[in-house]
Every structure is written in structure tokens, then in C-alpha cells.
């Protein structure tokens, strides 16, 4: 578990009354919200874990928070500004957030070297003219240096992996490459949606250490309000225990309980959480 000095910082992301109702296929049955009026906030440098049984709304909530789904009710604010369609806050949030998925191979083009795949988000930012990420006068050496640095951060030797192809990589190595691809744009918010569940058990500890060290570096920022925040969705409570600061427990689109990770895992107040913990191995 990490500790984060967020006492004096403002939340980087706030969701208020977030609700999402998916259209059902023409049935008259009353529709149930996938996410039902959830309030959530994320502090700079904080790691928030969202846990809950399958279908409880974890992925939907995280996509609402990152502005990738439009809520049917409620609102998201990024750095204090409402995230409305086409707004500057929506563009900033899209630019400042990055995702790591369950299947790392889905985010690595099989035709590209790992170096190219990791560089691509930076190149795309350059094409969009996001000047803080990419300056036109930068040459290929700067780009290669940045890619090599981020590969080292995820414990992939650049000399070996820069020119490797996804088919050369194990699942764990591919997930590290996918994390590097997410980190290369220096996101303010990293969403990791079940980042370990498709990885061989023996490689999971390594990925966990990688994510822990990324969060530790982020927390060491001189200005805590500049730290990267992480939202992690995981069925694996061992992972949650080792990386999260705070846990939010979801059931049927609602928050059952939330609090500091050790409090929730050691002294859950709700029977739903107790059952969830009993079903998991810590
Ligand atoms: N695109 C969609 N269209 C219709 N219903 C959806 C859609 N996406 C999710 N749902 C429904 O919304 C509810 C919440 O789904 P969500 O994927 O957010 O849950 P989850 O907790 O992430 O589940 P899991 O752990 O299985 O990934 C579920 O009942 C799901 O079937």
C-alpha cells in the first residue's frame, strides 16, 4: 500500500451523481442503471481501486470518469472544470489520461516493433499539435531517448525490446510494453482495467512491482499536485492490497462502502464486501 500526501491538494477528478443506463433491446422491463448516482473523487498521486462482482459497474464507472462515456445524469469535473462535450476540460482529460487493458496484445500492433508502438502516442500528440508533449524541433534521437527511458522504467531492456515484435514477447513482457505505451505521454491519470488477469501468475508479481514503482515515483514529485493518479480495477485483492490507497466497493452500480485500503480489507463493514473478500485469495 502506498501513502500519499494529498492533504493540501484538490482532487484532480471528481464525479458527482454519475449515472449510466444502457438501452435494453426493446423490452418493457424497467431498466437498471449500470452505474447509479455515484460520487467519487481522485486525488493527485492517489491510487483508487474499484472492486466488485462481475457486472457491478466498475468498467462503466471508470469510462464515465475518464470522459469516454457520457453519463445519463451527473457530471465529471477535471482539475475543477466540468467535462462537457467539446469543452477544453474534455480535451485536457483525454490528453492527460491513459489506459492499460487486460489483454496487452490488443494495444500492440503486431506489425510494429515495440519501440514504434511505444512511440506512437507521442507521435500522435505531435500530429495533433499537443506542444507540451512533442516539439517539432525535437529530432528522432529525442524520441528514441524518451522511448528507451520509459522502457527502462517498466524494466524492459531497451537494447533488446526496442526492436522486438509483440510475437517475440511473453504476456508479462507485453503488458510491460503496454504500460510503457501508456506512460510515454506522461499521463496525469492512468486507468488500469484488470491489468493482471490475462498474465501468467508467475509474471504478475513483476507487473505489480512495476506499477508500484511507477506510483512511488509519482508520489515523490516535489509538488504533490503534479503526481500521477491511478484507478485500478482488479478482481485480485492481493494486487489491490499492495498498490491502492483507497478502495471503492461496487454492487449493482452503487457504492457499498469505500475507505482506506487496509480498513476495507481488514474490517469490511458490509456483508457484500466480506463475501467478496472471502471469495478472493489474499
Ligand atoms: N455497452 C453495453 N451495453 C449494454 N449493457 C452494458 C454495456 N456495457 C456494460 N453493460 C452492462 O452494465 C453492467 C455493468 O457492466 P460493467 O462492464 O461496467 O461491469 P464490471 O463490474 O466492469 O464487470 P466485469 O467485472 O465483468 O468486467 C452490466 O450489467 C453489463 O451487462
Automatic annotation (TrEMBL):
Keywords: ATP-binding, Nucleotide-binding, Transport. Belongs to the ABC transporter superfamily. The keyword Transport applies. Residues 13-277 form the ABC transporter domain. CDD domains: ABC_NikE_OppD_transporters. InterPro entries: AAA+_ATPase, ABC_transp_ATP-bind, ABC_transporter-like_ATP-bd, ABC_transporter-like_CS, P-loop_NTPase. GO terms for molecular function: ATP binding. This is ATP-binding cassette domain-containing protein. Pfam families: ABC_tran. PANTHER family: D,D-DIPEPTIDE TRANSPORT ATP-BINDING PROTEIN DDPF-RELATED (PTHR43776:SF7), TRANSPORT ATP-BINDING PROTEIN (PTHR43776). PROSITE patterns: ABC_TRANSPORTER_1, ABC_TRANSPORTER_2. It comes from Bifidobacterium choladohabitans.
Amino acid at each position: 500500500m502506498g501513502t500519499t500526501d494529498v492533504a493540501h491538494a484538490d482532487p484532480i477528478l471528481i464525479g458527482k451523481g454519475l449515472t449510466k443506463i444502457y438501452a435494453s433491446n426493446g423490452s418493457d422491463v424497467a431498466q437498471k442503471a449500470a452505474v447509479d448516482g455515484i460520487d467519487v473523487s481522485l486525488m493527485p498521486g492517489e491510487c483508487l481501486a474499484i472492486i466488485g462482482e462481475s457486472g457491478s459497474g466498475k468498467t462503466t464507472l471508470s469510462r464515465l470518469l475518464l470522459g469516454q462515456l457520457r453519463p445519463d445524469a451527473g457530471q465529471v469535473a477535471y482539475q475543477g472544470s466540468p467535462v462537457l462535450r467539446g469543452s477544453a476540460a474534455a480535451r485536457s482529460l483525454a490528453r492527460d489520461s491513459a489506459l492499460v487493458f487486460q489483454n496487452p496484445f490488443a494495444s500492440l500492433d503486431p506489425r510494429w516493433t515495440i519501440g514504434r508502438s511505444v512511440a506512437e502516442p507521442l507521435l500522435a500528440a505531435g500530429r495533433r499539435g499537443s506542444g507540451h508533449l512533442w516539439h517539432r524541433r525535437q529530432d528522432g534521437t529525442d524520441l528514441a531517448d524518451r522511448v528507451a527511458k520509459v522502457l527502462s522504467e517498466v524494466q524492459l531492456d531497451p537494447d533488446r525490446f526496442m526492436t522486438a515484435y509483440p510475437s517475440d514477447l511473453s504476456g508479462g513482457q507485453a503488458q510491460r510494453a503496454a504500460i510503457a505505451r501508456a506512460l510515454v505521454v506522461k499521463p496525469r491519470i492512468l486507468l488500469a482495467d484488470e491489468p493482471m488477469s490475462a498474465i501468467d501468475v508467475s509474471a504478475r508479481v513483476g507487473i505489480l512491482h512495476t506499477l508500484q514503482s511507477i506510483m512511488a515515483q509519482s508520489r515523490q514529485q516535489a509538488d504533490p499536485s503534479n503526481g500521477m493518479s491511478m484507478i485500478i480495477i482488479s478482481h485480485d485483492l492481493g494486487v489491490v492490497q499492495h498498490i491502492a490507497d483507497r478502495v471503492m466497493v461496487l454492487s449493482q452500480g452503487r457504492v457499498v462502502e469505500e475507505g482506506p485500503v487496509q480498513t476495507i480489507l481488514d474490517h469490511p463493514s458490509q456483508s457484500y464486501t466480506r463475501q467478496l473478500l472471502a471469495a478472493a485469495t489474499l
